[in-house]
Amino acid sequence: MPMAPYLLPPQAKDWYCPACGLTDQTNDPRIAVPLHPCPKLRGLMTPMLAKGTAGKIELHEREDYIGDELVQLDPEQGRPVMSMVITRDAGTDARIYVPTATGSVKE
How is the chain split among helix, strand and coil, in percent rounded to 5? Predict the structure, then answer.
């Protein structure tokens, strides 16, 4: 009778936010990078870094004309946010906040 493959339990992974210092621990392999509403980055959903990884997070304001577009706003200053850049030991990642699409139906 063949043996069933031995499945190892998921390993717990420790995370931290370089902006506010929040820590978390996950053991769900479906979570690639946990997010949290960071109080230091004005409540924007911010990715956490693996414990032991040095890094920083910066917000970049939109500098182009907005008009009537629906954009992500900085909750404190009301200014539009274009991106969040995460710089860490092994490279750079970015979260881009694109305007929300809108439409209308006319008869």
Answer: 0, 40, 60
